[in-house]
């Protein structure tokens, strides 16, 4: 900005001293800076300063406060991420603790821009007070401010957490929403490393979370279970719960649900919690806590819509690993009855349930989702036999039934059917069934059918598998390889264009 502009900015700043001139002066500042290049505007802002603009926030007139926020936002937008916090740290600290949520939002946005640009933008020693002030805003009554505080505090440099977690404990004294925000931060950073988890555990955050499960607030309890489910998929998370007896205490809550009139609201949360553990540690859970899965099987057999969706998701999640499949099969008739019910839901249920059931069945069939299984390792023969028998529960002619579902006009159902087909084709018996199903290969190779992007990609993955299968003759293999070479989104119109260009 020119010297003339800088002098004009200075005059507008001086006019802020008188209340009757303040709105006009603020608008003049905003209009002066709004369309100026960042470099020019920053020079003027730094030369004259923003202190007197910030002082306009210390008034009872909310319209003046809102206008002042607009002016400060225009000023701040001229700076690179992090520079506002660096150049005006004391002002940012004042704004973060201001009584007006509009002001706090303005300040926290600047911290968020800095942290999300690079965690090292604001080095911990110099800006630890800013990080602490932000962490304490996880309990802010303004949801957008609280959400930003959770996001920022979940992604700080690791060396900040010793001080930040200590000071953030104040938020545990507020309502359940504030405590859930604290727990979300704790879970997020606890899953990053054992050292950060230990820091959270030493400060009693984890113990406090578990003790809060005894609340009568059902929604609060469900939220805690959701967060704990994310924590216990880490070895250090589940080990801590086992060693301090917390897992056994949580299991006690499950047995007490039978007499709880709100059990329908709570069971999905507990089911998902134990399902997450069983996914990672199926043998231990099935040996010591198999009774907890009676609730899961009951939900699938009863068809109770309050718990059925989570039950299907949980069963499929447990069954995605080879060990999970073997542990489920070891339950005997109780499990095979559940598989029969899932098959019935695929054949006869509403759209949402059918989709969930298809995804559940895909988890039980799949072997590729198990990170412990190498692609070069032969499939465990027990898994081969079990999955084939489970698939046959779908219908006396299961592949023909799946073929029909793949042709369903509803995109979501069709997408789920292709995911199940992909899981089935991970087995040699599945490839052989596809080869014997009249018209199925022609259907898969037909590019004239319009699918969603996701379904096209799922179908392409299936064809890539089948292109290396011994279940087909050389002619079919050639057509499959051609499809793979052309890619998932090739169309005949592309060929016509290519031929025209060649002419």
Describe this structure in words.
With 503 residues, the protein is mostly helical. The chain is 71% helix and 0% strand. It is built from 32 helices and no strands. The protein has helices at residues 3-15, 22-34, 38-48, 51-55, 62-77, 83-87, 89-96, 101-117, 124-135, 143-153, 161-168, 176-190, 194-202, 205-211, 218-231, 235-243, 246-256, 263-280, 282-288, 292-302, 308-318, 322-330, 333-347, 351-365, 381-392, 398-406, 411-424, 428-436, 440-445, 453-466, 474-486, 492-502. Helix 18 packs across helix 19. The chain is globular, with a radius of gyration of 30 Å. Mean pLDDT is 88; it is low at 495-503.
Look at the helices and sheets and give the structural class.
mainly alpha
Helix content bin: over 70%
Estimate what percentage of residues fall within beta strands.
Answer: under 5%
Rg from C-alpha positions? Answer: 30 Å
Secondary structure: elements and pairs:
Elements: H1 3-15, H2 22-34, H3 38-48, H4 51-55, H5 62-77, H6 83-87, H7 89-96, H8 101-117, H9 124-135, H10 143-153, H11 161-168, H12 176-190, H13 194-202, H14 205-211, H15 218-231, H16 235-243, H17 246-256, H18 263-280, H19 282-288, H20 292-302, H21 308-318, H22 322-330, H23 333-347, H24 351-365, H25 381-392, H26 398-406, H27 411-424, H28 428-436, H29 440-445, H30 453-466, H31 474-486, H32 492-502
Helix pairs in contact: 1-2, 1-3, 2-5, 5-8, 7-8, 7-9, 8-10, 9-11, 10-12, 12-13, 12-15, 15-18, 18-19, 18-21, 20-21, 20-23, 21-24, 23-24, 24-27, 26-27, 27-30, 30-31
């Amino acid at each position: 900005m020119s010297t003339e502009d800088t002098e004009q900015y200075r005059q507008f700043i001086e006019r802020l001293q008188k209340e009757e001139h303040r709105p006009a002066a603020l608008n003049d500042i905003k209009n002066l800076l709004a369309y100026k290049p960042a470099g020019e505007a920053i020079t003027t802002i730094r030369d004259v300063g923003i202190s007197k603009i910030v002082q306009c926030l210390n008034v009872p007139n909310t319209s003046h406060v809102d206008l002042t926020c607009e002016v400060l936002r225009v000023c701040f937008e001229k700076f690179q991420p992090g520079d506002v916090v660096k150049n005006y740290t004391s002002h940012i600290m004042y704004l973060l603790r201001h009584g007006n949520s509009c002001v706090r939002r303005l300040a926290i946005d600047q911290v968020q821009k800095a942290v999300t640009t690079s965690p090292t933008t604001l080095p911990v020693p110099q800006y630890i007070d800013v990080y602490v002030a932000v962490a304490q805003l996880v309990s802010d009554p303004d949801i957008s401010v609280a959400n930003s505080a959770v996001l920022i505090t979940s992604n700080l440099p690791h060396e900040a957490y010793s001080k930040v977690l200590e000071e953030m404990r104040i938020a545990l004294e507020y309502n359940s929403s504030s405590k859930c925000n604290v727990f979300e931060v704790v879970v997020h950073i606890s899953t990053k490393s054992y050292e950060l988890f230990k820091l959270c555990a030493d400060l009693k955050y984890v113990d406090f979370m578990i003790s809060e499960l005894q609340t009568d607030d059902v929604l609060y309890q469900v939220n805690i279970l959701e967060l704990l489910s994310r924590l216990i998929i880490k070895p250090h998370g589940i080990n801590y719960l086992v060693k301090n007896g917390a897992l056994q205490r949580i299991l006690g809550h499950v047995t007490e649900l039978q007499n709880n009139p709100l059990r329908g609201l709570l069971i999905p949360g507990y089911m998902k919690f134990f399902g997450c553990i069983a996914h990672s540690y199926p043998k231990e859970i099935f040996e010591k806590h198999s009774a907890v899965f009676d609730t899961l099987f009951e939900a699938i057999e009863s068809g109770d819509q309050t718990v059925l969706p989570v039950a299907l998701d949980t069963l499929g999640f447990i069954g995605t690993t080879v060990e999970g499949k073997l542990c489920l099969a070891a339950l005997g008739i109780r499990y095979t009855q559940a598989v029969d019910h899932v098959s019935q839901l695929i054949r006869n249920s509403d759209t949402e349930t059918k989709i969930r059931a298809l995804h559940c069945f895909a988890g039980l069939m799949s072997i590729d989702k198990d990170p412990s299984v190498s692609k070069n390792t032969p499939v465990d023969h027990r898994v081969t036999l079990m999955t084939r028998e489970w698939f046959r529960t779908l219908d006396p002619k299961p592949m023909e039934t799946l073929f029909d579902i793949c042709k369903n006009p509803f995109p979501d159902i069709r997408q789920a059917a292709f995911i199940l087909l992909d899981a089935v084709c991970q087995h040699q018996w599945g490839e052989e069934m596809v080869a014997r199903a009249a018209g199925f290969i022609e259907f898969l190779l037909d590019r004239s059918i319009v699918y969603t992007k996701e379904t096209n990609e799922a179908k392409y993955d299936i064809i890539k598998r089948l292109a290396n299968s011994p279940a087909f003759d050389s002619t079919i293999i050639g057509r499959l390889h051609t499809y793979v070479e052309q890619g998932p989104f090739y169309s005949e119109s592309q060929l016509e264009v290519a031929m025209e260009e060649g002419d």
